[in-house]
Design brief:
Layout: H1 12-31, H2 54-77, H3 79-100, H4 110-127, H5 133-144, H6 152-178, H7 193-210, H8 219-237, H9 265-276, H10 320-343, H11 349-356, H12 358-373, H13 382-405
Length: 412
């Protein structure tokens, strides 16, 4: 914990972007558990909703700040001390994560725990409960640490290599394992760091762009790369159309495709027939923020019309299409803050408060969320849901603001 504002000059766009991301997280985390919540504000695991854009922005911001702060640390302390300190900090964040994401009671009696054994006791939490936002940030940062100071080419090569490992692992076993319901993984599960590296490394590249000499504005290049990344993510997601059910009256046999990464010969043949008959548009996936076909207006039943597969945009699975698109989207959102804050000097107080003390805001919001929802049933009417959300955000802001006024910033 620090009791003083960092001495180095802060980058306004980063604080404002991070503050927006924290505020958006509050919104979707609170509203998502209510029946009245709009589907765009929920996580669905089968397409990229607004809710799914939030976590990649955290990883993007971490990558940006990582590149900035680590360079400063090396300049002041030297490389060996800087690397050692970073490893200690990230391992400390893992420890904090294990406390924040409590696994709950694993056994009611000593006999149950003894029979369960050590691996069975930790298997479930290791797959899901413990691997949430803070853990993914820590593990992904450790994974990226060896190349965070490397040149652009090395970092891009590392990104591509990480993505390739994830694709191979998903084909071999991982996609089925993380989605098998025993339990399901969260945010990509234990191997999620392989694709969470995508938005994090893009964040380091964004820092390189804005750290150019004064007078060189990277607006055009950042906008171009943002568009290219989003287009690439969408192009990858079109692979999901191989897994369409034959027809609405012949639903997919199972929720998970038998070959979720490499389509079967029959699926490839069907796609070729569509091309030959001029039905090329039927090979295009729905754009981001648009759910896949689903019966009875229930997005949760979309697997009946299209089996779950690696190429759909899925935060739960940490799929490559999702991470690439979300990295580009994160860059686009950051660019808005870069223009407004760094070029025009705009500031929004609430975003500054949340952005400068994001870890404290994250920890506090979980406690406030639990307290407010004690008085809010899941079927609450929309007006009551939004009222509760306002109370939740307001109380959390007051707590974080009080820390700010006292110069208290929660850091590791």
């Amino acid at each position: 914990m620090s009791t003083d504002e960092p001495a180095q000059k802060r980058i306004a766009s980063l604080d404002q972007f991070r503050g927006y991301t924290v505020l958006a997280m509050f919104l979707v985390n609170f509203l998502g558990s209510f029946e009245a919540c709009h589907w765009l504000l929920r996580h669905h695991n089968v397409f990229c909703s607004f809710a799914d854009t939030i976590m990649p922005q955290f990883l993007f911001a971490v990558g940006f700040a990582f590149r900035l702060s680590f360079e400063r640390r090396i300049e002041s302390r030297g490389a060996p001390a800087a690397y050692a300190r970073m490893v200690r900090r990230l391992l400390g964040l893992v420890l904090v994560s294990l406390v924040v994401y409590s696994a709950g009671s694993r056994a009611e009696t000593w006999d149950q725990l003894s029979t369960m054994g050590a691996w069975e006791a930790v298997r479930g939490p290791l797959k899901s409960t413990w691997f949430q936002t803070l853990t993914h940030i820590a593990v992904t940062s450790l994974w990226v640490l060896p190349v965070v100071r490397a040149g652009v080419g090395w970092r891009i090569a590392f990104l591509l290599g990480s993505a390739a490992i994830h694709v191979v692992a998903s084909h071999a076993f991982y996609f089925h394992w993380v989605n098998n319901g025993a339990p399901n993984g969260i945010d990509g599960g234990p191997l999620g760091f392989l694709t969470w590296a995508v938005p994090m490394i893009v964040g380091t590249l964004a820092y390189d762009a804005v750290a150019q000499p004064e007078g060189r504005r990277p607006l055009a290049s950042m906008l171009l790369w943002s568009a290219l990344l989003m287009a690439a993510g969408y192009a990858l997601s079109c692979g999901t159309r191989f897994y369409d059910a034959p027809s609405a009256t012949q639903p997919a046999a199972t929720k998970l495709a038998s070959q979720p990464v490499i389509p079967t010969p029959a699926q490839v043949a069907t796609a070729r027939e569509k091309v030959a008959s001029g039905q090329v548009l039927q090979l295009l996936a729905e754009p981001p923020f648009v759910p896949p076909p689903h019966p009875d207006g229930d997005i949760g039943k979309s697997h009946q019309l299209r089996a779950w597969n690696y190429w759909m945009m899925s935060q739960r699975s940490g799929t490559l299409s999702y991470q690439v698109f979300a990295a580009g989207f994160s860059l686009a959102v950051f660019l808005l803050f870069y223009v407004g804050c760094d070029l025009y000097g705009w500031r929004i107080g609430v975003l500054s408060t949340f952005g400068a003390n994001a870890l404290a805001a994250y920890v506090l919001h979980m406690m406030v969320d639990h307290s407010v929802k004690s008085f809010m049933p899941r079927d609450a009417p929309e007006w009551y849901m939004w009222g509760g959300c306002a109370v939740f955000i307001g109380v959390t802001y007051l707590l974080v603001r009080s820390l700010e006024l006292r110069g208290i910033y929660l850091k590791l």
